[in-house]
Amino acid sequence: MKSEVVYLNGRFVAPDQAQVSVFDRGFLFADSVYEVIPYYRGVGFRLQQHLDRLAYSLRAVRIQADEDWAAILDELVRRNGGGNLSVYLQVSRGSAGYRTHTYDDSMRPTVFACTSPIRDIYSDGAEQIQGYNVIVTADLRWRRCDIKSTGLLPNILVLQQAREAGADEALLVRDGLLSEGTSSNLFVVKQGVIYTPKRSSEILGGTTRELILELASEAGIPYQEVDIRPEELATADEVWISSSTRGVMPVLTIDGEPVADGQKGPLWHRMFDLFTRFQHRLMTGEA
Ligand code: PLP
């Protein structure tokens, strides 16, 4: 569903009033970074963590843009009726007025944001959550996956490959190790311990990944950030993926084979419950 109001370079306008140059480097080169931030009942979920990552991505690609991001996004959400919305924010390096690979600091970044409705999965309850079916395939991306760049062609092609195989997501393998999903981080549970690939330039530092580790730590659930080989999936008790708009999701099959008994596992239920409570605290101003 479309946004009723979008934000473009200082203005809140209808989508058909928002125009960007054909020479915008976001369009020509994917020379841009982005964030996707869930809002529940009009309140940003881990907004500061998303803005910190945006600042990190901007610094990493040397785009100089400094706005009151929270004020812009809160206002955009308000103008779109509040409620449960996913906000997309993109900052590109802007346009030189012609096509050129080189850039200088005189370009003015293009800032675009729009919203789309999302489900409040935490209010829905655990029974409503559909498990994921995934495939395992090669990670074709560049080696700076810590930057949330709009250069998503490898992610898109591999997700399409998953869809055509009847799956919902693909887990990616590089140099014999699992990295993450095309738009999610990865967790493997064995004998009560949560394992997840280490933070590095090979994966995105997911805000939901961070929250899972925080909640695990508070609840005394052991976790380790380690290298994980794809062969290890076969003996996992549970596999999860995580992202902002989907939260923590159980993976039920991998390449058509069930994970353990093919059901949502007990530790996933526990983590989902911790998420639900955290979200409630956030909504009521207690977190
Ligand atoms: N990894 C990739 C490649 C992603 O695109 C995303 C989110 O879109 C994530 C991980 C999860 O990040 P977050 O939890 O901040 O949404």
UniProtKB/TrEMBL annotation:
Superkingdom of the organism of origin: Bacteria
UniProt cross-references to InterPro entries, sorted A to Z: Aminotrans_IV (IPR001544), Aminotransferase-like (IPR036038), BCAT-like_C (IPR043132), BCAT-like_N (IPR043131), Class-IV_PLP-Dep_Aminotrnsfr (IPR050571)
Pfam families, alphabetized: Aminotran_4
Family, per entry: Belongs to the class-IV pyridoxal-phosphate-dependent aminotransferase family.
Protein name: D-alanine transaminase
Source species of the chain: Marinobacterium sediminicola
